[in-house]
Design a protein that fits this description.
alpha/beta
Length: 269
């Protein structure tokens, strides 16, 4: 296993879920182990649900539309976005994370598509600034940020559905690194910012995870996500274990190091 996903490996093993990483690693070349697809639908459930405010329905639809568009034209450019909000009623059965702001980096997405450059999402530039501004200036008692991106799939590009439906080990590694950085930032600033990750896959699932830095970076999934009172699909497509897909057919996109160049430096300054 490559050293750059050691935190993902440790987190899953601490939860008794090391087999998820081992299973995913079988599907990719050893030199590309950081792209091992992780069947995150088998993670334990978070205690609360996610509710996106009604007025953000159009933005959610536009994000999903980029996946549908690419399914037709055979491209696989990931769209990065931030979902920002706050935790309400923590610790009881009705607790929820309320999303009241979504930022989509559509400009860099369109540029990458038009110029046929980097396929993978990056959180540099606008999203980096928005993340840090929210961390420093949010007036919510318990602000929350989900770092999200799409996982389009294309048979023309040899990216099978079974791979794009999963998080990659690299995705989870990035979420853990940011969560650790935010933990240090909270201690220094007195804030209570929480972070998670989200992948919207080709099946239309809105799959979100939370990193519990107080519990050895344990990973939890959010099985319920809504826009207003309308439930969105999450972790609905089988077990994501793709046992019927030969390992040699799974080819994942090359991930730029830029994806990991996120908020770490800014938050610690």
């Amino acid at each position: 296993m490559l050293t750059q996903i050691n935190k993902t490996k440790a987190a899953l093993e601490n939860q008794g879920l090391g087999s998820l990483l081992a299973e995913g690693a079988k599907r990719v070349a050893a030199s590309n182990a950081d792209q091992a697809p992780i069947s995150a639908n088998l993670l334990p459930n978070a205690q609360n649900k996610i509710i996106i405010k009604d007025e953000l329905l159009e933005t959610v639809g536009l994000i999903k539309a980029t996946i549908d568009m690419q399914r037709q034209n055979g491209t696989i450019y990931e769209l990065p976005f931030l979902m920002m909000g706050y935790e309400a009623e923590s610790g009881n059965p009705n607790s929820a994370v309320i999303i009241d702001k979504i930022i989509v980096d559509d400009e860099s997405f369109i540029k990458r598509v038009n110029e046929k450059t980097e396929q993978s999402a990056s959180f540099e530039g606008r999203l980096n600034k928005e993340f840090n501004d929210y961390a420093k200036n949010s007036e919510h008692k318990k602000p929350v940020v989900f770092m999200g991106h799409t996982h389009p799939s294309s048979e023309k590009q040899n990216i099978p559905n079974s791979t794009s439906r999963c998080f990659s080990a690299y995705d989870l590694e990035g979420y853990i690194e940011i969560a650790e950085t935010v933990k240090a930032y909270n201690k220094q600033s007195g804030k209570d910012l929480q972070v998670g990750g989200m992948v919207i896959n080709e099946a239309g699932d809105f799959n979100a995870v939370f990193v519990d830095t107080e519990n050895k970076n344990a990973l939890y999934k959010f099985p319920e996500i809504y826009v207003g009172k309308n439930k969105l699909p999450a972790y609905t497509v089988g077990k994501y274990l793709f046992d019927k897909v030969p390992a040699q057919t799974l080819i994942t996109p090359i991930v730029s190091p830029a994806r990991r160049q996120t908020q770490q430096q800014d938050l610690t300054q």
